[in-house]
Amino acid sequence: MLIFGERINGMFTDIGDALRNKDPKPIQYWAVKQQEGGAHYLDVNSGPAIPTHERVEAYEWMVNVIQEVSELPLVLDSTNYDAIEAGLKVCKRPAIINSCPAEQVKIERVFPMAIQYNAGIIGLTMDKKGIPKDAENRVAFAMELVAAADEYGVPMEDLFIDPLILPVNVAQEHAPEVLESLRQVKMLANPAPRTVLGLSNVSQKSPDRNLINRTYMAMAIASGLDAAIMDANDDDLVDVAATCQILLNRSVYADSYLKVFRAR
Question: Of 177, 212, 222, 262, which is least surrounded by CB within 10 A?
């Protein structure tokens, strides 16, 4: 189970201000703090803080300032693929491109880029029409992404399928459909693609966010979840991820398993 720390995102006020002012300190603070919390990757997203025409330069700058203080690999998160490529060019370790929907034009841009830079890909189970309501159509989009990976030579272990969880307070019917999608994605290829969720989306604007996140993550891991973009500094949430690994017999039990999980 991989934890992608979510905190370096321009949607957060401190990160947005840091990007606008080119102040590396808040970005570096959260890079170190998330690594200490148990993150295995750092998701990097400028959000709306940077105008589109400035994002190429911004992603190169963000990658460089993060790599001054952390050796964790990065998840470059943007709809601007030129910005992602600028970041990939300066990454010291193989990164993950976040993301690519099941749209041919975007597949043709992203998959060759992944090969060129030895990067992974987060593939979204959606197209221009949006996110499907049911598992069947989510899995159909996943199959298109799996086929693209095979066509372009992207190793299946480098493809992360995201079946796109929505907030439970407005789209409750999606929650079980995403779990079923996770189960079915694991049957699309051998070896199977990996799976990922933007976990915090499930609890947006709900009063019991931490409880919803922890409960849904445990359910998702049992359904085949391999990674989550999540709060790496919610100790209880990270503990749930670690405990799921031993209860599903994916990690060897030791009394120190919580520390071992964070030390990977």
Answer: 222
